[in-house]
Amino acid sequence: MTTTNRKLILLCVLFVALVAGFGLDNPRFLTLNMARTVLQFSTLLALVSLGQALVVLSGGAGIDLSVGGAVSLSAVATMLAVQSGAPTFLIPAMAAASGLLLGLFNGLIVVRYRILPLIGTLGGYFIYAGAAMALTNGSSITGAPSWLTPLGRGAYAGIPLHFLCLVLPVFAITAAMLTFTSWGRWIYALGFNERSARLVGIPVDRVRLFIYTGSGGLAGLAALVSIAWFGSARPNIGVNLELESLAAALLGGVAISGGVGGVLGVLLAVVMIVTLQTGLQFINTPTIYQVGIVGLLLILSLLLDLLPRHWRAR
Question: Which pLDDT score is estimated for 184?
């Protein structure tokens, strides 16, 4: 059994145990309304986790710690443009374009200037998050049009519209891309052995630049959902998304060294993490403990990835 399969089995067991545990404590946790709440809060994390998973999957010590700042700055930049007179029908395009530009900046830092992704994207996070706070003085920017709010607050058959119209299609398209296209095979090849990938003619730098840009674009989509949901751009909306997205990517079966994993497990990990957070809020657990538990999940996922290699080495 592969490490990825072991992670997915453990993930399913943990998810069932979480739901059962919270349900036994309070049967209201097992209602359809609670399931909708979990999906409502899953979208932002799911979108940035998908980008994070692709970055890690492509290897090269890949990691994107800027995703939270990119979500915040994309939302702020979009609503500032609207305040300056940009037509509101351009909000989706502006949010996505803002994220793509921020992701492109990350990619250039990593690919063109060969700065370690950990350092480059961490610097990007501080730039983006700091800019979002400076441009707004820490206050939300209101003014989202009424036609946009159904995307953030509406539902169809009990499923939030943004989860149905953005998360599921994007994950399905990415899974198909990884499975059936040359670009998908190239991403796995980069993560498995970058030197060999270069020798066989794979455009390593172009693929990696595409991945970081795509991660930024997904952060832009998350920014769009936040504007539609809250009716405003919040400069702190991306807080902790970098930690949670990395935990979801690794817990969902993506190897920290790259080259192994998929995206469907990442979506399951996102739902599990949000279920855990929602359940802890349901029983009035302080927020600081929720962050600590996500950190423990991150360590657990790393151990599941590294321990089998250690045992084989012995």
Answer: 95
Global pTM exceeds 0.85: yes
Amino acid residing at 168? L
Residue 256: closest CA among 247, 243, 269? 247
Angle, CA 60 vertex, CA 59 and CA 66 arms, to 5°: 90
What domain count does the chain have?
Answer: 1
Q: How far apart are CA 230 and CA 131, in angstroms?
A: 20
| Residue located via tokens 């990835």 | 305
Amino acid at 313: A
> For 280-284, what is the mean pLDDT?
82
182: CATH: 1.10.3470
Residue with tokens 């809020």: 281
Check whether 111 has a pLDDT greater than 80.
yes
In a domain, 145, yes or no: yes
Element of type H or E holding 232: strand 232-233
Cβ proximity of 230 and 280 under 8 Å = no
Burial category of 264 from C-beta neighbours within 10 Å (exposed 0-12, middle 13-18, buried 19 and up): middle
Does the CA dihedral 183-117-163-89 come out positive or negative? negative
